[in-house]
Amino acid sequence: MKKIAISLLTLSVGIFSVAQDDQNMVENPGFEQIEGKIKREGAINVAIGWMSPTKAAADLYAGKIKGDLGTPQNFVGYEEPHGGQNYAGIRVFSYNDKEPRQYISTKLKLPLRKDATYCVKFYVNLAEGSKYASNNIGVNFSKKQYNIDENKSIMTTTEVMHKDNPVFNGYFGWEEICGTYVAEGGEKFLTIGNFFSNGETGNQRLKKVKDFTGTSVMSAYYYIDDISVVMLDDGEECDCQINEHKVKTEYIYEVSPVNPEGMKDDQIVKYTELYFGYGKSDFTKSDFEHLKNIETVMNANANYKLTINSHMDSDEADDEDCIGLDKTRAEEVKKHLVSKGIAADRIFVKTYGAEQPLDSSGSEIGQAKNRRITFVLGQ
Fold this sequence. Notes:
Layout: H1 2-23, E1 50-51, E2 59-61, E3 73-74, E4 77-78, E5 87-93, E6 104-107, E7 117-126, E8 132-134, E9 138-142, E10 175-182, E11 189-193, E12 203-205, E13 220-231, H2 265-270, E14 273-275, H3 285-300, E15 305-310, H4 314-317, H5 325-339, E16 347-351, H6 364-370, E17 372-378
Parallel strand pairs: 15-16
Antiparallel strand pairs: 1-6, 2-5, 3-4, 5-13, 6-11, 7-10, 7-13, 8-12, 9-11, 14-17, 15-17
């Protein structure tokens, strides 16, 4: 009887998943269905239903391919797909427009209904080969397909963006862009990219990721996956992660490691910061670069003492599963430094819980900034 119950449960979950797919107005939302071969960059049209609306064709990456255009490893970075085996890739910003922007576009299954509200979602990840990060990544709906036979940016309205419109500078993990759109009626096409001018686009120049061995691209280049447009019933809400009361995000705020050349030791330590995912104490790949600066300073002078200041965000402070997390994070850092030859009696730990927030906005980005460790050098 138990086996039958489990089978029925599995069947019901499968039917529910199919029902969700049927509700999605986007065909081939994860680029899994392909027709033809991915032989070179700019092959987005190999994904059924997708195309690039400008001459600068977007890229397609597939799990069945090894090398430059595969997943999770490819010429511009490493990232597991958000779902399935494939994802797309686009440039959304480059300094002085030295490299043309890319866009991806598809025809919706049906035109959007006038005054109907739609929940719109997709996921982005900054490729490790990117020399820049930017904001202004969003969705445009249109009644006609853009078809520009030039390397030209599309300047038009952006219907859905992240509510905080941050500079997406985290290399590790997918970020959800989610919001609602009330249709004018008759919109048939969806396009994803940056529809703002360079002057209106926030950007950040990044230091090369140590583990990335390829050639960096002089742009903000993002992987894109799992696009959905679902019509909401009256009173139904769009279940964006950023709107959930309980924080479940894995968002990690990232800053580039400081370049110690010409800096005094106390400045190097002061400007070195580590950030964490919600409820997490494990390090990201870039954290080891930050910690290497601390190691160098501490090993150069045996008289130096180091204080590790550890902070939580306010949601973690209210979460029973996160009790003592600030201390755990600090002890993990201390343990790492001791493993690099720094005496434990030279390292001190201070924990502050959520008492000293760096950002009091309560936004996802703000909370990510609060989940941090800072350092103070003394003698």
